[in-house]
Write a structure and sequence with these properties.
The protein is mainly β. It is built from eleven helices and 32 strands.
Length: about 675
């Protein structure tokens, strides 16, 4: 789409690997603040140290080899499976069309290009500011307005869902839904050095650019590119002023009541929506993640430490200037109305989206659904914070195929659990162990002594602290494999891990690169309360002997760091998008495929890389296994960048400014 351009601009990365601008707007510089979890619960790294230290014999390698030199010698992802060592498996599942690609070499972090494999083409599908209603104006960078933004695609795209209309793999129409997580205020307007410089009108535009975007899409035939319909019947925006319903056991609780909503059951807006999921009944789930940074806590009291436990300790983003509900001292309960899982019906533009209190309140990365053997809906969720937890929700009622009205209430009541991991200590050379789902709420009753059900669900972090779960390394996306039903959790990194919490075989103090963990529920039933686990990926530069790729030869795999979102193709291969590689390995973030079965298991190869400053998010593998969608979030998000100092012009539409966009990739 464009000529590769290497930019001299060098960013300043925070310890977690992200750009300093990303850290400011994504999570309010969380890694620069104390870890909110001060409980005495066991660290995940302490569990890993006991299990992973036994793998040192499998991690021998040439330490210190330069990445560029290794790239020239091996060519990441382009080696025949026969080149793998004796760790290769005896059988391999038949791969889909997408799995048969030649992996690309890692791209320099300063390259302003979306790079795809040979034989593939990409194009933008929809970008920030594109009109999504019949009367919406075309995007005009220098003439933005609140009214226009509310009927145009929102800003930083993250989780992406493609729901096809009725005809399965051959469908030619559907609905595209994607999160609009946060904004880069300096990149949206000229002459803005920080959020403090925004005018009141610009603040309202920023607020309108958050939330979700839903549009209808069409294609000529299977395997061809999608296009969105500006005047689609189901098109709509959810933003900071959209009405939401609160349901579940905590709805109406005193802690959710405000002066504007004395019922505690109606909320305006959704914030910092990160990952999500698609339900078996055709709705979309979205997780409210770093909502804490939008609230100004100046002058607010915190006698129970609840604000601190959720990281709500800043001066906010200035939104209280135009809406006093974002001032905690003025409206102390408004902050409790965020941090939930949101459910949206993309087929009904007149429906009111729901915030489900039964799934607990924390910094939700997302929620993905699998049905238990008895038909109950099970949601897996990660709390994206250093040293926080993985959760599971099991609905009380059972799924009824085709009964949309009944299924729409499945997430309104059920059991909530939090995970505890234990290493097996068997000395068998495996990164593995057992685990259990510790109960927080069961059969409508609190399992936390002295806490009511409503308190457990509103202040879930503090409730979980009391039952002894395992501290994790920033749990992000957690999803079940549609072929094997094993569950995979991306643990992005943990800059708070101390050297004393690791051993010689796992030198990750701090853990810059992250892990992926595989969870096998007891009897493969999603409703089980016990499981076994195994680490399948210890990310980093493969020349580092501490890395691990499910036992595959480290000379034949791609470097990877900071796994974020995960998804699967129809044959069960794991696809991983990354967030933070420019600051940890010096490469652009991208999308990777990791086979999980057969002789290819562990042979990681890179499918694409995103432009300078961007993160690769929300991957979608089409039902026909021929097209990939990715959310290219915050292109050009490099410290010091501005509309006058442009670092990226993705998606190369000729307007000279970076615009977050959904990109689609297909075979030529």
């Amino acid at each position: 789409m464009t000529t590769r351009k290497l930019l001299p601009f060098v960013d300043r990365a925070h310890p977690g690997g992200r750009s300093s601008m990303t850290c400011l707007y994504r999570c309010g510089n969380a890694c620069a603040h104390p870890v909110p979890n001060e409980s005495a619960n066991e660290h995940f790294e302490e569990v890993v140290a006991r299990a992973v230290s036994r793998r040192s014999v499998l991690r021998a390698g040439a330490v210190g080899a330069a990445a560029a030199g290794v790239l020239g010698a091996t060519g990441w992802g382009a080696v025949s499976p026969a080149a793998a060592s004796g760790t290769a498996r005896a059988t391999a599942p038949a791969g889909g069309p997408l799995s048969r690609f030649s992996g690309i070499a890692p791209t320099a972090a300063t390259t302003d290009e979306l790079v795809v494999p040979s034989g593939f083409t990409w194009s933008p599908l929809i970008a920030w500011g594109d009109p999504i209603t019949r009367d919406a104006p075309a995007f005009d960078f220098d003439n933005q307005s609140v009214e226009a933004q509310r009927c145009q695609a929102g800003y930083n795209c993250d989780f992406t869902a493609l729901l096809l209309d009725g005809r399965g793999r051959g469908a030619r129409s559907g609905v595209l839904a994607f999160n609009n997580e946060y904004t880069n205020d300096e990149l949206m307007f000229r002459g803005v050095g920080s959020s403090a410089d925004l005018s009141d009108d610009q603040l309202r535009i920023v607020m309108a650019a958050h939330g979700m975007t839903i549009v209808e899409v069409r294609r000529e035939r299977p395997g061809t590119p999608w296009r969105y319909l500006q005047a689609g019947r189901r098109n709509r925006r959810l933003h900071s002023e959209t009405p939401f319903v609160v349901d579940g056991p905590a709805a109406g609780h005193a802690a959710l009541r405000t002066s504007a909503d004395p019922t505690g059951k109606h909320v305006l807006g959704t914030l910092n929506n990160c990952a999500g999921g698609v339900t078996p009944w055709g709705t979309v789930l979205s997780g409210e993640e770093n909502f804490n940074q939008y609230f100004n806590t100046t002058g607010a009291s915190d006698p129970d430490g609840r604000l601190k436990r959720y990281g709500i300790t800043s001066g906010g983003r200035g939104w209280e200037r135009v809406d006093p509900r974002f001032d905690v001292a003025t409206e102390p309960n408004e902050v409790n109305r965020f941090g939930w899982i949101v459910e949206v019906d993309p087929d009904d533009p007149g429906s009111r989206p729901v915030k489900h209190t039964a799934l607990g309140r924390f910094k939700h990365e997302g929620a993905t659904i699998r049905l238990a053997d008895d038909g109950r809906a099970v949601a897996y969720m990660g709390d994206d914070e250093r040293n926080d937890y993985i959760y599971k929700f099991v609905s009380r009622k059972k799924h009824r195929p085709g009964n949309r009205r009944h299924n729409a209430k499945l997430l309104s009541e059920g059991d909530l659990h939090v995970a505890k991991f234990t290493g097996d200590g068997a000395g068998d050379g495996q990164h593995d162990g057992t685990g259990e789902w510790l109960p927080l709420v069961v059969d409508g009753r609190s399992q936390v002594p002295g806490w009511s059900v409503e308190e457990v669900l509103i202040w879930t972090r503090q409730a979980a602290d009391l039952v002894g779960p395992t501290k994790m390394d920033r749990p992000e996306d957690v999803e079940a494999n549609p072929v094997t039903w094993k569950v995979y959790a991306a643990l992005t990194n943990n800059t708070a891990r101390q050297p004393g919490q690791v051993d010689e075989a796992n030198p990750r103090g701090p853990n810059k690169h992250g892990h992926v963990i595989e969870i096998s529920e007891h009897r493969n039933d999603a409703a089980a309360v016990t499981f076994t686990w195994q680490i399948v990926l210890v990310a980093g530069d493969p020349t580092d002997p501490s890395t691990y790729f499910a036992g595959f030869d480290r000379d034949q795999v791609s470097p990877i760091s900071c796994p974020d979102n995960v998804t699967f193709d129809r044959t069960g291969n794991l696809w991983i998008s990354t967030d933070g590689m420019p600051g940890t390995l010096g490469f652009a973030d991208g999308l990777y495929m990791l086979p999980l079965e057969g002789r290819e298991r562990g042979r990681l190869k890179q499918f694409l890389s995103v432009p300078v400053g961007a993160e690769c998010s929300g991957p979608v593998i089409s039902a026909d296994d021929r097209t990939v969608l990715v959310a290219v979030q915050h292109p050009g998000e490099v410290s010091g960048a501005s509309p006058e100092h442009v670092v990226s012009t993705f998606p190369y539409l000729g307007d000279g400014q970076p615009r977050p966009a959904i990109a689609q990739v297909w075979r030529d």
